[in-house]
Design brief:
The complex is a heterodimer of chains A (about 575) and B (about 350). With about 575 residues, chain A is mainly α. Chain A contains 23 helices and four strands. Chain B has a six-stranded mixed beta sheet, with helices on both faces. In chain B, strands 11-12-13-20-14 form a five-stranded mixed beta barrel. A five-stranded antiparallel beta sheet of chain B has the order 15-19-16-17-18, with no helix packed on it. The chains are: A mainly alpha (about 575), B alpha+beta (about 350).
């Protein structure tokens, strides 16, 4: 017979610890969210409906609504944002469907590359497009020199240029969400449709598309808000008649109080829109989100005949367009006195030298603010992710809503809100935050925190609770369990989220442009001011460095996670 | 309608999921494909459904060749293991979908869907979404969706495996009742031999892409053709040894538990390796036996499980071999405690002897 497994010598008892009530852990997080998100937003909304003397009034709202100029601008913005969503939906759906369902030459490579446009800030993207497609850009010069075209073709100046730059930048957000949805569709759902008699397009329309709609909607609302609120991109190609551009121009001028107020009203409008969209998206997604467990993925079908050529050609075209700006930025960054020729005739390191050695402040500031922002994000976001996934403290739902709101809240709105909220001495401490450099990393941290929170949350959901319960059952305290069991199992996911936060902090081109004071300039500020003042070589050089930094960050994410991160980009909720 | 597979081969890369399957399922029959996971039973079902095209061999429905015909044109109804109800449609819409695609007039759709929902006991639940239904109800919707198109063949892929035991037993009887009412040719896939025995007119036992035996539940239980089937269907004591003598269709096998005798199933020359299979209910305690026993085994009780209608003993015999012994209706039986010595035996006609399967 078998001997007893362990002898009966009693073990020393596990020490009992005094425990803080869980709410105590959460209080600093509450405070952070309140002070840096809820309070500024409240200030923004309050300022939009009150005079400088603190009288409540709807006068400014009425002024805004009645002003034909703003009506026009609002309409333009909606058209541009709507057009961006439409364009992204067509390309994003098509790309996702082809990548998930079919096999063709280069599929794996394309699937990596479709993700890449996200690493380029739209501000840099449109600048790059101008170098290639602008009036004196490569394409027009070639057309005029070799095809005898008299006047340059306007590919880029105007709304169509804004649309092109935005679609090329944002379509991966839709692709990611749809890929995520498609890979969750169980094969038998479509087979059941086939058995019922639905084939081809019928099956896709009736079964497949409705099943991926929730993912699509959460991606599409995000794209709409981001496109709606971007002011820097349109200004680069001279489009001022958009609501976001007006908000920026109104806020940065110090002459006209009324215009300034209009800027605030627009900021409030953007914030309100983000909130409304979020609620709607959540409703729709909750109504239509199906807890489907995929037993068996739909098999990937090899493409045959002409499709084997057509599909890679489609990806090549889209990606070539998406990568044109990179080429433009690189050429301009190293070109010397580039004009009137398709490509620079002489090359130089002077621009790069200028932004890295002579005035390295842009690069240094960007790295400094972003690194600090990530530190703040890790300190607040990881505990927050844990609270959302694991605890039952009161206010969890609200915190979750705030995190998702921040994801959808345009940088323009947050920037304006911070200008208003932190322009006065804070109660109790008496500091004017908007005059301290810490405001830069703070605003970046707030803006980019959701990626880390969501990544932590997702990693924790994948980690079965019993792992932690097992640790507790053998005597580990809460913190011990977290350090010994939880952290080793989720750090990859958390780090991937933090790197995303870092990448988007590096790219921030709205809140920081609104908030910087002399000496705090970031790379995007530098690009914007260099470009709009005509110092194009240095703008391009900064853009080039920024792209390299973002690419390196994204590469690190890929190495960590493979490429499955669709859930990070969506307004539909964690 | 008759379903006939002839020498069907289906490969997935290097794996032969079907290695030459031939079977004829007669009209109105409840036919079950039974086997362990990976044996090729689901592949066979999906070849009949038309989701897979065979790499070789033919599929006929009556006399029509079905190779290459898409599922919707075969006149099949299929129920998937995970039900595969479309979550974005209501119960009614799920069932009506196939009719809508066939452009059936709306009034006729309504009539048919409601009749079918009633048939499966779901009247009044048409407005629910699948997410609001229990597992058993979802299963009924899946069955309704398969039946509403009046299929000529009903295909069920482990339809009960995700349900708890009670619901499973009830749905099992209902599926059988429906099938009897409709007299529809039905192919059922399961790995649960009890389910197969209860439901089927005939069962095909599959392993490694081949059909090992086709027969009625009684055939398979009482006359298994191979060691695999003897082991897979019901419970059997399997004792390996070497054949020492052979006479009148019976062989004597020398085993660590002593010499055993049974009916030879297959070529068993003296000196060859063999396995004796004897079911627990055929083993009786010597002191309770009505007459002399052909074969006896002495041993010691190591475990006794009282189940009410039966007592199951684990008896350790010579060579450390443990045999299961079932005593039915144990009211007149004096229970043996673990450690007690006991001698059991069986009639040589109740034991089967198979050549040892070299593969396992």
């Amino acid at each position: 017979m078998t001997a007893p497994v362990a002898d009966a010598v009693p073990l020393p008892a596990v020490a009992r610890r005094r425990r803080l009530p869980p709410v105590a852990w959460v209080l600093p997080i509450y405070a952070f969210l309140f002070l840096f998100i809820v309070f500024p937003l409240w200030r923004l909304f309050a300022d939009a409906v009150s005079t400088d003397e603190g009288q409540w009034t709807v006068r400014f709202l009425l002024d805004f609504v009645r002003d034909a100029f703003y009506q026009r601008a609002l309409l333009n913005s909606i058209v541009v944002a709507g057009g961006t969503v439409l364009g992204c939906a067509v390309i994003g759906f098509l790309a996702a469907f082809l990548l998930v369902r079919y096999d063709f030459p280069g599929r794996a490579l394309f699937s990596y590359l479709t993700m890449l446009p996200i690493i380029m800030p739209p501000l840099v993207g449109i600048m790059g497009l101008v170098f290639i497609l602008g009036r004196a850009g490569t394409v027009n010069v070639l057309l005029m020199d070799y095809l005898g075209l008299r006047a340059p073709v306007n590919f880029i100046y105007g709304w169509h240029g804004v649309l092109l730059a935005m679609i090329l930048h944002y379509f991966p957000l839709i692709t990611l969400n749809v890929v995520d949805g498609l890979s969750k569709v169980d094969a038998s759902l479509e087979e059941a449709a086939e058995a019922a008699g639905a084939r081809g397009l019928r099956k896709v329309l009736d079964i497949t598309i409705p099943l991926v709609t929730p993912g699509f909607i959460s991606g599409a609302t995000l794209v709409f808000i981001l496109a709606f609120a971007d002011f820097a991109t349109p200004l680069v190609v001279g489009v001022q008649n958009l609501i976001a551009s007006q908000a920026y121009l109104n806020i940065v001028q110090f002459v006209d109080r009324r215009l300034f107020k209009m800027g605030i009203v627009i900021g409030a409008l953007m914030a309100a829109m983000a909130i409304v969209f979020l609620v709607v998206a959540r409703r729709v997604v909750a109504m239509r989100e199906y807890a489907v467990v995929s037993y068996r993925a739909v098999e990937r079908r090899p493409l045959a005949g002409p499709w084997r050529i057509a599909v890679p050609a489609f990806f090549t075209t889209v990606l070539t367009l998406a990568f044109l700006p990179y080429l433009g930025v690189a050429l301009a960054a190293f070109g010397r006195a580039w004009s009137l020729t398709p490509f620079p005739t002489r090359f130089t390191l002077a621009h790069l030298d200028a932004v890295l050695h002579l005035t390295p402040i842009y690069v240094i500031n960007t790295l400094r603010w972003s690194a600090l922002a990530v530190a703040i994000i890790l300190a607040v976001g990881v505990p927050l992710g844990w609270v959302l996934a694991r605890s039952t403290v009161p206010g969890r739902g609200l915190m979750d809503a705030i995190v998702t709101l921040v994801l959808a809240l345009p940088g323009t709105a947050i920037g304006i809100a911070y200008i208003r909220a932190f322009h006065f001495p804070l109660p109790l401490v008496g500091v004017v935050l908007s005059r301290l450099w810490i405001i830069m990393p703070l605003v970046l941290a707030v803006r980019r925190m959701p990626y880390t929170v969501r990544a932590t949350f997702a990693a924790l959901l994948n980690l079965h609770r019993s792992m932690e319960e097992a640790a507790a059952s053998v005597g580990a305290s809460g913190l011990r369990t977290f350090v010994d069991v939880t952290l080793p199992l989720i750090w990859r996911g958390v780090l991937a989220g933090a790197l995303f936060s870092l990448m988007f902090a590096l790219q921030e081109a709205a809140a920081t442009i609104l908030l910087f004071l002399p000496g705090w300039e970031t790379m995007t500020v530098g690009i914007f001011t260099f470009y709009t003042s005509g110092t194009i070589g240095q703008a391009a050089a900064l853009g080039f460095v920024l792209i390299l930094l973002c690419a390196a960050t994204l590469y690190a994410v890929y190495r960590l996670t493979g490429a499955r991160m669709g859930g990070l980009f969506g307004s539909g909720g964690g | 309608m008759q379903v006939r597979l002839t020498d069907v081969v289906k490969r997935f890369g290097p794996v032969e999921a079907m290695a030459g399957v031939s079977v004829t399922i007669t009209d109105g029959e409840f036919f079950t494909l039974l086997g362990p996971s990976g044996c090729g039973k689901t592949t066979t079902l999906r070849v009949i459904a038309g989701f897979y095209d065979p790499d070789a061999g033919t599929v006929h429905f009556d006399d029509t060749l079905m190779n290459g015909v898409p599922p919707a044109e075969r006149g099949i109804g299929i129920v998937f293991q995970n039900y595969a109800l479309w979550p974005h449609m209501t119960v009614y819409e799920n069932v009506a979908y196939g009719l809508r695609l066939r452009r059936v007039p709306p009034a006729e759709i309504r009539r048919r869907v409601e009749a079918t929902l009633e048939q499966v006991g779901l009247q009044g639940l048409g407005d629910r979404t699948p997410g609001q239904l229990s597992g058993g109800q979802q299963q009924r919707v899946a069955v309704a969706r398969a039946l509403v198109l009046n299929p000529r063949v009903l295909l069920l892929d482990e339809p009960l495996s995700n349900l708890d035991a009670k619901v499973r037993a009830r749905l099992r009887s209902e599926i059988r009742r429906l099938q009897q009412e409709l007299r529809i040719t039905t192919v059922y896939v399961t790995h649960d031999q009890e389910e197969a025995m209860v439901l089927s007119d005939r069962i095909a036992v599959m392993d490694r892409g081949r059909i090992l035996q086709i027969g009625t539940p009684v055939d398979l239980y009482e006359r298994p053709a191979s060691l695999f089937v003897a082991d897979f269907i019901g419970t059997n004591n399997l004792i390996a040894g070497t054949v020492t003598a052979s006479r009148d269709g019976q062989v004597v096998v020398e085993t660590p538990a002593g010499p055993l005798r049974g009916v030879a199933r297959g070529a068993l020359a003296p000196g060859s390796r063999a396995v004796v299979a004897v079911r627990p209910e055929h083993l009786v305690l010597q002191r309770e036996a009505p007459g002399p026993l052909d074969v006896t085994l002495a041993g010691r009780v190591v475990l006794s499980q009282y189940l009410g209608n039966v007592v199951r003993y684990e008896l350790e015999t010579g060579g450390g071999i443990v045999v299961l012994v079932d005593v039915h209706d144990p009211r007149r039986h004096r229970l043996l405690a673990p450690g007690a010595e006991a001698t059991v035996g069986f009639a040589a006609t109740s034991a089967l002897v198979f050549p040892e399967d070299r593969q396992s």
